[in-house]
Design brief:
Length: 373
Amino acid sequence: MVSTYTNYQLITRDIERSLTRVQKQPLVERETKYYLENITKVKSIEEFVGDTRLFNYAMKAHGLSDMAYAKAFMIKALKEGVSDPASFANKLTDKRYAEFVKAYDFASLGEETTTYSLAQQGTADRYQLEATMAGVSPLDPVLLQQTESYLQGIKEVTSIDEFLADEELYSYAMKAWGLIDKMGDQAFIRKVLEGGVADPNSFANKQSDKKYAAFAAAFDFAAHGAAATTYNPTQQGAVDKYIRQTLEEEAGAQDEGVRLALYFERKASTITNAYHILGDVALAKVVRTALGIPEASAQADVDIQARMLTERVDFADFKDPEALSRFLARFSAMWEMNNGGGAASSLTSILFSRPVEFGISTDTLLTLQQLRK
């Protein structure tokens, strides 16, 4: 019997190949084609939710398929948006809802939600606001020509190098985001862009001036590569999530432990404290399993649970590929011990046939084997 960890490694060893395999499945191709052809036509929450095929695709992309029937619930979340910390989505314990509403932000962007790009319209809006505050009319011909030129040019930019090399586009963007004083320090701006914003400890996120993080989020080459200046979360962003979700679901049909490991690996870099884990049922299950914490502990006061996890987990490890690999190897071994099904032979297989580079020591596996007995 192939172990949970072996199955997990077979998928992640060449994750792009695994995702491409899923993407080429006839059903996935068909649903993705329909989604991309129609999502940009949607101008309102009612239109979005009213197209069941589109809505179901989006819900699955965000891991919310089991709530696709609850349209009134989702409409309420979408209408209140995420700008207000007290909004419906933000108050829900499960943060997947807030992520969904942030992607389909009709509350803030209205009819432009499915076509809006921070690098394009978002930057142009800010530039015009800066000009207006300086006393320039929003209808000024020069301002309008500058904006038109920017919108035409920026969508052709596919790298940080191209962005920094185009003085007209670069200066427009820097002025729009209130960073004109730093325009001459391209080495600094390059570090801002290269680090992105996904990691809370990235260069941009560690700056006291939050304008740098906002700028890096608008031109997120770190996360989106060549698509950074055209990216919209409701378009390719949703497709990428849908394909990854499908991959995880298919893995889970064979071994739920593999699905949990894949999900944890995907979310690991965003975990910075215990509450991020406790607010996500799947993440909490992985951590409790790996640490041997009884499921009944979930009934305890959340602050008590958080203190316990903080004492036992170094959250920085989840951003270290080697440490993360060791953690997921431990989870996989404990998962098999708890769920039977040939776990003993699987653990032996890992111990004696898996190369050491896969990140779990023989001492750990021998300990786990003894624990099972």
